[in-house]
């Protein structure tokens, strides 16, 4: 922690039940993932781990169209749309991995044996 007094202020705000958004560094506009919702981060993590939209939809219990929409909004937040030629999904996953340091938080899947 670089600023102990800021941490104390944030804890006091939580204990008082007041607004704590001012203490959320993860929502600062200059942070690459600040514009993503938790749902978008989860979907991008799953995409970055190699899952298809169909697999992500099944895991999240939603339709493939819902995942397509979520990924599309994540593309816009990550400013990927129109930035590259070719597969925009790949570009978005690459951008997501860049800003997360390559960490998806999802364990690697074991290859299925036949």
TrEMBL record:
GO terms for molecular function: DNA binding. SUPFAM superfamilies: C-terminal effector domain of the bipartite response regulators. Pfam families: GerE (PF00196). Residues 33-96 form the HTH luxR-type domain. InterPro entries: Sig_transdc_resp-reg_C-effctor, Tscrpt_reg_LuxR_C, WH-like_DNA-bd_sf. One of its GO terms (biological process) is regulation of DNA-templated transcription. This is Unannotated protein. It comes from freshwater metagenome. The lineage of its organism: unclassified sequences, metagenomes, ecological metagenomes.
